[in-house]
Each structure stands twice: as C-alpha cells, then as structure tokens.
Amino acid sequence: MTDDVRADGPWDESEIDLGDGIERIDLGALLVPATEGMDLQVQVDEQTGSIVQVTLAMKECAVQVQPYAAPRSGGMWSDVRAQIKKSISASGGLVEEADGPFGIELRAQVKPTDGGKSLQSVRFVGAEGPRWFLRAVFLGKASRPGPEAVALEAVVRGLVVVRGGDAMPVGAPITMRLPEALDAGGSSGRPPINPFERGPEITEIR
C-alpha cells in the first residue's frame, strides 16, 4: 500500500503491473519511464560496472535520483534532511524546509563547485517505500515552482524501485546497472550534464 505522499508514485515494484505497456528503462534497482524530451545520463564505476549517479535532464533543468536501503519502520527522510541541512549550512549555503508535492522538502542555495560566487538553487525531495528510500535532487529551473519542476516531478512519480530481498545496511545505495543493450561508451554512459557548468556536490548517505 502506498502512503498519501506516494499515492501517485514513485512506486515499489509490488505496487504496479509491469505489463501495463509503459516503456521503462531497466537500471536494475530503478525502472525509469521513457519520456519524450528527457535525457537519461549516468556515471558508471569503471571497476564494478555499477551506476553511481543517475541524472534525468530536460531543458535547463535536471533531477538526480538514487534509491537507498531503508528500515521497515520508515522515518529515514527525517534523518537525511537533518544531515543535508547540516552539510549545506557548514559549507556556507542556505537551506530551509518547505511543504512540497512529495511532502516536506528542502529548498537550498548552495555554493557552486566551479569557484563561482553566486549561490545556486537546489531542491531535495525524499520518498519512502517498503524498505527503500528514494532521494531526488532537483537542479536548475526545476529547483523552483514552475512548468519545468512539474515535468520532472512527473518523471519521478513514474519511477519504480526494485529493492530486492537481500539484507542491506540502512542507508546503503541499492545497486543500479546499465541495461544489457548499453555500455559505458554509449549515449547513456556519458558523464551527467547538469544545468550548471558543474552541479552542487551532493553528500551521499553513508
């Protein structure tokens, strides 16, 4: 059963019919709906072949998504928010909590990693499912309310998390991989291109 915040997704694999005719890109732990105008970009660990970052980009905006193992009891997003807020404040950025379409989210202004002085907008969203937590980081125009945000939010709503039955430490990234038809040299193996020259450094959950 989904909670009210996830009533329209993102989904656990147990909650939908994967034979519903929707074309999805299989990244292992994450099924991404094929969306017109969306560019799927990944970074791959050359040693393991695992995906370490997924970026879904549209015009002048993008969202980075990552699924993590979570406790059955839930509540992980509250802990993650506190960690992100502490990290951003320590680095000289600005951050506040706000109500958004996925519940409580973080809206922040962070320092760019390219040495620029202007703070850049970024928005952190969390969704909790059965033993998983999905973090989405909206960049560029999608970090603020508007049609770009709505378009990428719809993509995030369509994501399907495949947690698997293996025991995993809480907070461990759930392994993603390239589809068999692609390799790191293909179009989906390019380093992610953010709306910024370089996007903000995002603290990983450890």
Q: Could you say how many structural domains there are in total?
A: 1
| Element order: H for helix, E for strand | EEEEEEHEEEEHEE
What is the percentage of strand-forming residues? 25-35%
Mean pLDDT: 84
Low-confidence stretches: 183-206
Distance between the termini: 28 Å
Major pleated sheet: 8 strands, antiparallel
Secondary-structure map:
Elements: E1 11-12, E2 24-26, E3 30-33, E4 39-44, E5 50-58, E6 61-69, H1 76-90, E7 94-100, E8 103-110, E9 120-129, E10 132-140, H2 147-157, E11 160-161, E12 176-177
Parallel strand pairs: 1-11
Antiparallel strand pairs: 2-3, 3-11, 4-5, 5-6, 5-12, 6-10, 7-8, 8-9, 9-10
Task: Tell me what you see in this structure.
With 206 residues, this protein is mainly beta. It has one domain: Protein Transport Mog1p, Chain A (3-Layer(aba) Sandwich). Helix content is 13%, strand content 34%. The strands form two sheets. Strands 4, 5, 6, 7, 8, 9, 10 and 12 form an eight-stranded antiparallel β-sheet that branches. Strands 1-11-3-2 form a four-stranded mixed β-sheet. The two termini are 28 Å apart. Mean pLDDT is 84; it is low at 183-206.
Gist?
It holds the Pfam family DUF3710. With 206 residues, the protein is mainly beta. 13% of the residues lie in helices and 34% in strands.
Describe the structure using short key phrases.
8-stranded antiparallel sheet; 4-stranded mixed sheet; 13% helix
